[in-house]
Design goal:
The chain has 162 residues and is mainly α. The protein has helices at 6-18, 21-28, 32-46, 62-89, 106-114, 118-122, 140-152, and strands spanning 51-54, 57-60, 128-132, 157-161. It has two domains: 6-89, Winged helix-like DNA-binding domain superfamily/Winged helix DNA-binding domain (Arc Repressor Mutant, subunit A); 106-161, no CATH class.
């Protein structure tokens, strides 16, 4: 598995999106034979196929569906790592986009960000989950259950307002 590099991830994602080796190769700016070789090398590295030929198209196997879903996430994180390291190298400020519902207490968001957690959130050292419930009919147990669900999903910092 250590032989899998980002070229293979990009090739698998492109092939999943295009379902055709030639179109996937064009999308990546490589030749069709190079694309075929990358997919073949990926299959060899894994020991099983992610795509099978069906007529002129390539269709994903169940393993291919699962692999490409994770490959998309890995490529997104790799791009994020590049952006964050470039920003840090250039001593740039990074913008943190915060969304909130109309029920969220604006002071909660201000307090969370004033605790210098924003930088840790931005670089992926910390995830934040904030829920607000519109009325007092929501129980504390509902809030606790949501926080526990977030914890199970690897969210480290959680806040709940009612």
């Amino acid at each position: 598995m250590s032989d899998i590099d980002f070229r293979f991830l990009r090739a698998a994602v492109a092939l999943m999106d295009e379902l055709n080796t030639s179109r996937a190769a064009i999308r990546l700016g490589i030749g069709q034979s190079a694309m075929s070789k990358q997919i073949s090398a990926l299959h060899d590295a894994l020991g099983y196929p992610l795509f099978i030929k069906q007529g002129r198209n390539m269709v994903p196997t169940a393993a291919g569906d699962a692999f490409v879903a994770q490959a998309r996430i890995a490529l997104d994180y790799a791009e994020r790592a590049k952006r964050m390291s470039r920003a840090a190298h250039q001593h740039m400020e990074v913008v943190l986009h915060v969304g909130k519902s109309p029920y969220t207490d604006p002071y909660l968001i201000t307090n969370v960000l004033s605790l210098r957690l924003a930088r840790k959130i931005l670089v992926g050292q910390l995830s934040a989950t904030i829920w607000s419930m519109p009325d007092s009919s929501s129980s504390l147990m509902d809030c606790v259950a949501r926080i526990m669900a977030a914890w199970c999903l690897r969210h480290v910092f959680c806040a709940c307002t009612m």
